[in-house]
Amino acid sequence: MAGNVKVFVPRDTTACSLGANQVAAKLQQHFSVQSLNYEVIRNGSRGLYWLEPLIEIAAADERVAFGPIGLADIDDFIAGKCWEIDKSHPKYLGPTEEIPYLKQQQRLTFARVGLSESLSIADYQNHSGFTGLKKALAMTPQDLVTEVKESGLRGRGGAAFPTGIKWQTVLDNEADQKYIVCNADEGDSGTYSDRMLMESDPYCLIEGMTIAARAVGAEKGYIYLRDEYPLAHAILEEAIETARDENFLGSNILDSGASFDIEIRLGAGAYICGEETSMLESLEGKRGEVRPKPPLPAIEGLFGKPTVINNVISLAAVPGIIAEGAASYHNYGIDRSRGTLPFQLAGNIKQAGLVEIPFGATLRDMLYEYGGGSRSGRPLKAVQVGGPLGAYLSESQWDTPLDYEAFVAIDGMLGHGGIVAFDDSVDMSEQARFSMEFCAIESCGKCTPCRIGSVRGVEVIDLIREGENSGENKELLLELCDTMVAGSLCAMGGLTPFPVRSALKHFAEDFEQG
Amino acid sequence: MSKEKEISKEEIVSGIVSEHKETSGPLLIILHEIQKALKFIPPETVPLIAEGLNLSRAEVHGVISFYHFFRSAPPGRHTIQICRAESCQAMGSRQLEQHAKQSLGIDFHQTTADEQITLEPVYCLGNCACSPAIRVGDDIHAHVGPAAFDAILADLATEKVEVQN
Ligand SMILES: Cc1cc2nc3c(=O)[nH]c(=O)nc-3n(C[C@H](O)[C@H](O)[C@H](O)COP(=O)(O)O)c2cc1C
Ligand code: SF4
Ligand code: FES
Q1: Residue partners of A373: CB distance under 8 A and separation at least 6
Q2: How close does chain B come to A499, measured CA to CA in Å?
Q3: Quick one: which of A95, A132, A449, B8 could link to A319 by a disulfide (CB 3.0–4.6 Å)?
Q4: Quick check: B164 and A25 CB within 8 A?
């Protein structure tokens, strides 16, 4: 196929939801009917979602983009022979890497995402894939753990616990069997970085898990994947098989003597199963009820064995850290938030997409410089950061730096990096109600403050919204929140009050009747 | 349902149970496989599953009822999941939800009288960059307002098969 010009059409859930499969099929058909020397490649997404489907053309020495080219645009694209790179075409975006949204980012974990065909293991290696693993196989487990500690990497799933310290505990615990569990439950609204990484760069996750296994002495890994991600499932299954065929997984990996294999287990629509101990129960085939801690999963985890549980993005950051050294990662970021976080812009935002940048920029930069303001054109009013358990932030708080501790200081959280914007048509009492309702629906039922408190919370907010004894009921609501924070076993019941209180505090007018 | 069909259901379930019973912690895998094969988990097969795995019926039932995804009654021909989570709310999913319920004449977790459509809520499809999102089978749709929803319904009704790659 040498000499063929490559035309990239992403195979990514969101790109496909915008018609990428049909667009790719039409292009392919045209090229083959006309016997043109063009090859359609299904790459991952660059994460510039307002431009999807984003078609890229790899010409002699540059790679240029057109977008969005959806079903409504593809016929015109074909008629205009855009692959011959008509720079005057209204959808021409110039060289992809020069698009400011992308150019301004520091993509470390997402360095490869969208560059090539997700499942091509050759392309993966051409873009320095498996460099970290090869290095890791020659290092001692302790050196690997130390490297991850020194990188400053903290868990990207929400709790931001230092990854290296977790690994140390598992390494130090002797056992006949240890496990690596990848948390791919990505339940938070407004987040899709795990999905993107798995769909667009699946070998990176496999490599990260294999390095983790080497570091702590595990031979078996599980990916707990939510059922809501059928495409990620299909791609991961195929990637695991290919990695096995090429001896990056299985026994005696790359003749190192080390063995490790990965199995995917599907969730079944329970948000709480993203909580790590609930996930372990679910992996064991049980109801996803949260376990009390201690014991820590690092000591007594899956099937009672020492277990590393890490988010997809935490694990995907590891190959780069090992390949480039801890300092290369630690040099980014501020204070105790080191490295980069792949933020996800969502909700009512004009330029929604994945933005991987070092910690320290402000939320306002995100909303306006990257996001371009609201999608509806109306003023932005509230922003929820960190998923359904994260606070709603009002404009006075948007200059807060994106940093774990800075967000905790304003009763917020960065969580998994989801940023959901709302314009001024939002009714914040309705949002507060939903927070309680969601907790009631998703509570595992183990403790009363969460299970009953959330149901009560919905009722009380309804009364406030109806204007009934508003003052008293607001006090009652705050007391209920205190009870949930103090008496819940896990962060589901313990953090649900944060969005509720923040709505009440910063958007009080939405709780007044008339 | 004919008797024959009942028997084959149980055979399917037994087959799945014996295929996976040696796996560690197999119950969820088995339930997924059963639902994939039969579109739901027939309550009368719970004893079979329990027996095969040495669990009590209550334990198996407890697991089925814990997870929103597993169903104990057959769904319609198509299942439509509407995302109810925050990013989609910010782009009008509440109106979409109302519209869908009204035009189908059903609530969530219900199936239309002609057994064509089952409506389910879902909490995020990872498509939040293009909210509101819905899922039909394994296809996810972006920017779904009431008009787009009607168009998708019309496609399903005429069985227009999308160009798949
Ligand atoms: C209610 C709840 C839901 C959670 N959902 C997720 C999730 O979907 N994905 C995730 O990685 N972590 C989730 N977490 C955090 C996990 O419990 C755990 O901290 C994480 O998987 C550890 O990996 P990390 O250190 O790499 O972040 C959730 C926690 C709670 C309390
Ligand atoms: S807080 Fe809620 S979800 Fe967490 S253990 Fe208690 S009942 Fe379960
Ligand atoms: S919130 Fe609806 S797709 Fe994520």
Answers
A1: A349, A350, A367, A380
A2: 12
A3: A132
A4: yes
